[in-house]
Structure formats: C-alpha cells, structure tokens
Amino acid sequence: MLGLKPMELLLILFVLLLLFGATRLPQLGSSLGSAIRNFKRGFGGEEDAGGQGGDKKGGGTLATGGNVDKDVKSSTPSSHA
C-alpha cells in the first residue's frame, strides 16, 4: 500500500482529523468512495460493489434519434463550382 509504514498512516490520519474534524471525515470518505465507484463504472471496470448482479442491464443495443435512411451530402467540395 504505497510503502507507507503504520506510524506514517497514523500521522496522515491525525492530520486529516485535525483539518476536517471528526464529523466531516466520514462524509469525505463516503464521497471519495462513491466517486471512485462511479469512475470505475464509467470505464466499465467494476459492476455494483454490493454484489447485486441482478440489476445488470442487458442488451447492448443503441438508441437512435430517428431514421438512418436520410440522404447525406458529401462534405468534400465538388469540382464544378
């Protein structure tokens, strides 16, 4: 764990406790944990940490905004200007 000794971890925890207080520190920890979970979920690295595999969305289909059969104009300039 980053090569930190137990005494160094206690010192860091003490400094955090002094800076944020005993009531704010659990809120910071939970918000940091949820931010990391959302980051991992955004990259597809982790499903829900609670082990609730039943909520997994299946499918793999993409929703489109309308018909795809519309004519598309070329973005390259024409030679007859």
From TrEMBL:
Membrane topology summary: Single-pass membrane protein
InterPro entries for the chain: TatA/B/E, TatA/E
GO biological process: protein transport by the Tat complex
Subcellular location as annotated: Cell inner membrane; Cell membrane
Protein species of origin: Myxococcus stipitatus (strain DSM 14675 / JCM 12634 / Mx s8)
Family affiliation: Belongs to the TatA/E family.
Name the record gives this protein: Sec-independent protein translocase protein TatA
Presence of keyword Transmembrane helix: yes
Positions of region (Disordered): 46-81
GO cellular component terms given for this protein: TAT protein transport complex
Matches recorded under Gene3D superfamilies: 1.20.5.3310
Complex formation: Forms a complex with TatC.
GO function term, MF aspect, one: protein transmembrane transporter activity
Entry keyword set: Cell inner membrane, Cell membrane, Membrane, Protein transport, Translocation, Transmembrane, Transmembrane helix, Transport
Function: Part of the twin-arginine translocation (Tat) system that transports large folded proteins containing a characteristic twin-arginine motif in their signal peptide across membranes. TatA could form the protein-conducting channel of the Tat system.
Xref: NCBIfam families: tatAE
Transmembrane recorded as keyword: yes
